[in-house]
Design a protein that fits this description.
By secondary structure, this protein is of the alpha/beta class. It has a single domain, classed as NADP-dependent oxidoreductase domain (TIM Barrel, Alpha-Beta Barrel), CATH 3.20.20. The protein contains eleven helices and twelve strands. The chain has an eight-stranded parallel β-sheet. α8 links the parallel β10 and β11. α1 runs parallel beside α11 and α3 packs parallel to α5. It is globular, with a radius of gyration of 18 Å. The termini are close together. About 45% of the residues are buried. InterPro entries: AKR_Detox_Biosynth, NAD(P)_OxRdtase_dom_sf, NADP_OxRdtase_dom.
């Protein structure tokens, strides 16, 4: 495994992290604690130290799986990133709640679920600009940093071209930007990444496999069932993505190289990216994801 500095946080994160949206049940499968334990144990065995989760991956469900795991392991072995701003109701149904009083309750609920007394990175989660521009919210969060409940603040931008929230990071003491970035979606390179570089912000690249399109598993014409998150995408977008992936596989991926590993390493070839946070369904996928570090210079 290789490690990079997460911007001005000074945390050293594994270049491959573990995304845990799937633990909340919205990937069309339900996890149990033993399955989560096996995934996280394999991650640690591979040198991974970063877990990314959120309050609304289930109703703190993903956090609870992670907390149960960490309660039986060394907490200091992991850098835990979670998020705030939503109440989960059912699959793909959430409401935005970003007022300071409620976010404080969300923080305490996350700490309880994670069975920890501190969160390494607490991220504003895909909220609109008008709720981001709330001094009361960030003043409250700064107090939680001072109290030791949170080590660092970050922003998971909903639009991967949200320059407003990125540019305002230093003002609100947000030290990390999480953004969609992959070979099919390079928009952050234009404005967001230069802003991150100017401010020495850490960058976490989410959806690095483009919701599985870059996994190498799917050919043009592939169909996704109703329980698959890709089924919710526009059919024409899916068709174009599958055709572009086939072209990338043919023209860009070296012979004999696993496409998913290549796609993760592609993100990391950009030095602004501190870590990629792909999801995974089993320990075998963790091993495959971790292997992408070998392709990074």
């Amino acid at each position: 495994m290789k490690y990079r500095r997460l911007g001005k946080t000074e945390l050293n994160v594994s270049v491959i992290g573990i995304g845990t949206w799937q633990f909340g049940g919205e990937w069309g499968m339900q996890f149990n604690q033993d399955e989560v334990d096996a995934i996280l144990d394999k991650g640690q065995e591979c040198g991974i130290n970063l877990i990314d989760t959120a309050e609304c991956y289930g109703d703190h469900l993903s956090e609870s799986f992670i907390g149960d795991y960490m309660s039986r392991r060394k907490r200091e072995d992991w850098i835990v990133a979670t998020k705030f701003g939503h109440h989960f109701h059912e699959r793909f149904t959430r409401t935005d709640v970003f007022d300071a009083e409620d976010v404080l309750k969300q923080l305490d609920a996350s700490l309880k679920a994670l069975k920890t007394d501190y969160i390494d990175l607490y991220q504003f989660h895909s909220g609109p600009d008008h709720v981001f521009d709330n001094d009361k919210l960030w003043t409250m969060l700064d107090k939680q940093v001072e109290a030791g409940k949170v080590r660092h603040l970050g922003t998971s931008i909903g639009s991967n071209d949200n320059l407003h929230q990125t540019d305002a990071s230093s003002k609100v003491n947000s030290k990390v930007i999480q953004v969609v970035y992959n070979r099919l979606d390079r928009v952050p390179e234009n404005r967001v990444f230069p802003s991150c570089e100017r401010q020495d912000l850490g960058v976490l690249a989410r959806v690095p496999l483009a919701s599985g399109f870059l996994s190498g598993k799917y050919k043009p014409g592939a169909q996704f069932d109703a329980n698959d998150v890709r089924h919710r995408k526009d059919a024409e977008v899916v068709r174009r993505n599958l055709e572009e992936v086939e072209r990338i596989r043919r023209d860009e991926v070296p012979a004999g190289v696993d496409m998913a590993q290549w796609a993760l390493a592609w993100c990391l070839k950009n030095p602004i990216v501190s870590s990629v946070i792909p999801g995974c369904k089993n320990p075998e996928q963790v091993v495959s994801n971790a292997g992408a570090a070998d392709l990074v210079e």
